[in-house]
Amino acid sequence: MRGWFYILMTAVFMVTVHAVAMAESAPAAPGAIHLPMRMVAESARPAAGRTVTIALAATPEKGWHGYWKNGGDAGLPTEAHWTLPQGMSAGALRYPVPGRLKIAGLMNYVYERPFTLLVDLSVPAGLAQGTALPVSVKLDYLVCTDTICVPESQTLSTRLTVGDGAVDPAVRAEFDRWRAALPKPLGGDATIETKDKAVRIAVPLPAAVTVKDAYFYPDRSGVIDHAAPQAVTRQGDQLILAMPAAAMPTPGPVSGVLSLGEGQGLAFAAKPGAIAGTGGADHGIGAVALAFLGAVLGGLLLNIMPCVFPILSLKALSLARGGGEERHARTEALAYTAGVVLVCVGLGVILLALRAGGQSAGWAFQLQDPRVIGILLLLVAGIAFNLAGLFELPTPAFAGRSGAMGSFATGALAAFVATPCSGPFMAGALGAALVLPAAAALAVFAGLGLGIALPFLAIGFVPALRRRLPRPGMWMVRLRHILSVPMFLTALALAWILGQEAGVPGMTLGLAAALLTALGLWWTGLRQHGGKGRAGWPAIVALVLAVALVVTVKPATAVAAKTADTAFTEARLESLRARGQPVFAYFTADWCLSCKVNEAAAIERGSVRDAFARHKVAVLVGDWTDGDPVLGRFIERHNRAGVPLYLYYAPGAKTPQVLPQVLTPSILERLGA
């Protein structure tokens, strides 16, 4: 009954104010226009077969306001009735981000300052140049003050001529300013959940994006209670808005604009679903299960990578050397698994905490710090020298020692050393983890650890697999020496990454630290073979000095200049294409979560950078964070309303290949091949 009462009162209010407005305003100022508008064409000579944008620039009289496409509790949208030449058509009106005005308990979505509506007109193909195109529109709208409302009408017209589509620079600048006021397409769907007369909307938005005045404007009525306050909270890379539902909800798709403050906004559609913390998470089990399975498969495949396979092999052979006791094998397998999973989950916790704190971090985030790369280089080099027989260090990491603590430490080492590596299934799974609720995300990271540990877990729990392991013998020494090769290759790759991040000086320091470590380990090996006491002291001293050396490494100062060279411009693109160089151009924005997931999971991976370097693929980055209209027009020419957009220009190709909006490293690694 309360809902019907509100609806009845709203209807009575609107009818009353309209009647009063018609009675009061007509005698006072016959024919007065309180919201004068003017029509401006972006090009007076649009090209046949193309579109031309028309602006309807409105300037409210002081004290008056116009309405957004959803006027709120008491407003009405603008209606446009076009008169166009045959074959010409008009698109929908595009509105800038509105403001809010609450009067007598009713919320209105309004414009109290000058605003501009944009609409695209399609010009028929095949028209001869010089053909006249008379354009006329009758606009019916409501304009109000705090006390009265007046329905007004205006007829605006202009005359266009079919031509070359040229745009005057001054007009272009004016349209760029008007386009900047439009909400940017989010490029991803939000989630809406209605429960117990309350609405919650989860908008995917990176934690690094600053939001000053978040507010949701629904495109239509019947979704939320317009006049009720909206509560805004952060949940990692999601912005959660909570508000009461409409008194009489109406079914249908939900879309709208998220205002970010200062006239900026994001347009998005919302799909029904469960939002974490509402008790309806079961609806998201499928997505979580898929991401978990992808993480397990990705971790499993990591075992064949050069950074993990030697450690797994030695650990498996330690079971063969230690005999076939069932309990012993299972204990070691569980301890190894615990070490792997704990490190993966721990890295996941740190990653989610960094993202919640506003940093745009992805998997292997620690590798963005050259000091971490340097320490990994020392660690991998130490493992490689141990496998090569330079020394014997009684730690579980190097010799595959038995015992629960040794297995736990070996598993932890395997997980940590695996972070620079990437493989199939990992990108999508870990990318999904970045947009899932924290508990589900950690489950995905645990799945990655389970995948890494799975082979050794199977060996520990399946006696038939252990029986297939070869018996101990001298061949194990030769195998250790062979396994040192992939570890040396891993160390070489880490040195290259260090050079990429810290330049030649940083790589030189890293290699000097690795050499110092090798000398200390060699000295320790000599003392071990001579049976001397305290044989490990040279290695310990050398490692301390080497670590002290690599922690002084800093990122190269030339990184900023390199980034500036990759900034997208059409001139730079044409220059690269003229030289016959393949080009990968991608368009992103700080507020685009799917963009950031693709960048962390695919574009910024070391394997992709290596592939681009081999195939000489140039990379250009278009940053559309501020709604740059030049980039916006380029994006529109590729039939996209917003970001992400990924384009690959093969040498000699006339048109680019539009890549999927969900990227994997394998897609990018094939470019230019």
Task: Describe the 3D structure.
About 45% of the residues lie in helices and about 20% in strands. Strand 17 and strand 18 form a beta hairpin. It has four domains: about 1-160, Immunoglobulin-like, CATH 2.60.40; about 190-280, Sandwich (Immunoglobulin-like); about 285-550, no CATH class; about 560-670, Glutaredoxin (3-Layer(aba) Sandwich), CATH 3.40.30.10. By secondary structure, it is α+β, with helices and mostly antiparallel strands. Residues about 1-30, about 280-285, about 395-400 and about 555-560 have low confidence and may be disordered. It is built from 19 helices and 22 strands. Strands 11, 12, 13, 14, 15, 16, 17 and 18 form an eight-stranded mixed β-sheet that branches. The N and C termini lie far apart (about 70 Å).
Return the structural class.
alpha+beta
Indicate the overall shape: elongated
- Which range does the strand content fall in? 15-25%
Report, as a whole number of angstroms, the end-to-end distance. Answer: 68 Å
Say what oligomer this is.
single chain
Q: pLDDT under 50 segments (min length 5)?
A: 1-30, 278-283, 395-401, 557-562
Count of separate DSSP helical elements = 19
- Radius of gyration of CA atoms, rounded to a whole number: 32 Å
The biggest sheet amounts to:
8 strands, mixed
Amount of helix:
40-55%
Number of E-state strands: 22
Mean pLDDT: 82
Question: What's the number of domains?
Answer: 4
